[in-house]
Amino acid sequence: MPPSPTPTRRGAPRNKDVRIGSPTTLAQTATGWAPHPREAGAESHAWDGLWPPGWPGRRVRVGVRRRQSTRATTRPGQSKPRPAIAAFVTTALTLSAEALVRAYGHRWTVAMALRDANACAGLGPEQCRKRHRIVGAQTFRVGMAAARTLGGIDQIECGMTCKRCD
Description:
By secondary structure, this protein is α+β, with helices and mostly antiparallel strands. The chain has three helices and four strands; from the N terminus they run H-E-E-E-E-H-H. It folds into two domains: 23-70 and 80-119, no CATH class; 124-166. The relative contact order is 0.09. The model has no long low-confidence stretch (mean pLDDT 76).
């Protein structure tokens, strides 16, 4: 008896890559998990594929770190417990799961610098509509931020070498 033909779908063959599910779905897979190098009881894994909600049409790497439910306790100074599942997404397909988590750890400093630039230096969205006015306003703001920083450094250096008059 000849082998039965493989079932096919109607229409043209699929020309897209494999879709990645949600981080919760990915965390439920059983194989391929490696122990996290710096956190006891945690495991990490990474997948490549398409993730249309995040980046339509681009291949991404999703790294997922899962913790045991008993491990999600608060540390001193932490207001809420750590999440049982943490997902990290990047378009750099060569990163390992550990390198991806490490890169996201460094991203925190960038996020804080952007927050401070918007809140303190006034480098947020501009109200002007003409290009030369936007360039002028942003140049002024960057100059003022630099002057404020240099003034603070000068005060610190003067306070360390000069006596204060009270």
